[in-house]
Description:
It is built from three helices and eleven strands, in the order βββαβββββαβαββ. By secondary structure, it is of the alpha+beta class.
Amino acid sequence: KAVNALLVSLVLGCSTLAQATVVEVTTNVGKFEINLYDESTPVTVQNFLSYVKSGRYDGTVIHRSIPGFVIQGGGFKFDQQLPLKATATNAQIVNEPKWSNVRATIAMAKQPNNPNSATNQWFVNLANNAANLDQQNSGFTVFGQISSTDMAVVDAIAALPRYNFSGIIDLPLRNY
């Protein structure tokens, strides 16, 4: 069967009303904006923006979807065939857990048992995951939020059928 991966493109913007950095995420399902927490999580925001500005997030895919939990992206590209190809990463960054992992927040993924291991993979919380993710692995750094209106796109991604392939579990695909 043909694989129709959820391609992602990110564009940097700035909201003059709130003086906050806004990143627009474009997927095959639709667009959503992320309002970044520039002041409270500066290391994480600068890391995320370095990937956006360099274009390394362009053409990446949402590679993990767990309904009622998270969708995850930033780490892999689809080159018209499986397996997915890992994207290049910057150095790992320090963890900055200041905000709770509640619905509509975006946080950095990291390696188990290594709080300071975030690089390029991010996830959107589909539910209130604070009881788990605020404590696990010294907490996951929330560095932005998506509006309730834009969460409709994220929820549509989370509702897609998921498939498992060698090395990838819970890959959301359209028309597969």
